[in-house]
Design brief:
The protein has helices spanning 14-32, 69-72, 75-90, and strands at residues 2-9, 35-39, 42-47, 50-56, 60-67. It is α+β, with helices and mostly antiparallel strands and 91 residues long.
């Protein structure tokens, strides 16, 4: 399994960051067939070949994702997409 970790700092506060994360997770869930389960300020995401979480903190958002064998070949592209989506959502 390949592990991807991406963290972005923000100055939005927890509530505003959570609202942006909810919007992003909803969009990604429909685009990539993700199952998302919220647990407080963390959302666990899962789909065939990938499992992870998004943690919303007061000053940062951290994405942890484990990729199975097939998706691990695309880990660079997937990490870049996560970084781009987070940067756009937090702008």
């Amino acid at each position: 399994m390949t592990q991807i970790s991406v963290e972005r700092k923000h100055a939005l506060g927890r509530e505003a960051a959570r609202a942006k994360a909810e919007s992003l997770v909803h969009k990604l869930s429909s685009e990539y067939d993700l199952k998302a389960t919220w647990n407080g300020d963390r959302v666990d995401v899962e789909r065939s070949g990938a499992k992870g979480s998004v943690q919303i903190n007061d000053d940062s958002i951290r994405v942890e994702l484990k990729l199975g064998m097939m998706l691990s070949m695309m880990s660079g592209t997937i990490k870049s997409e996560i970084e781009r989506a987070l940067d756009k959502a937090l702008a």
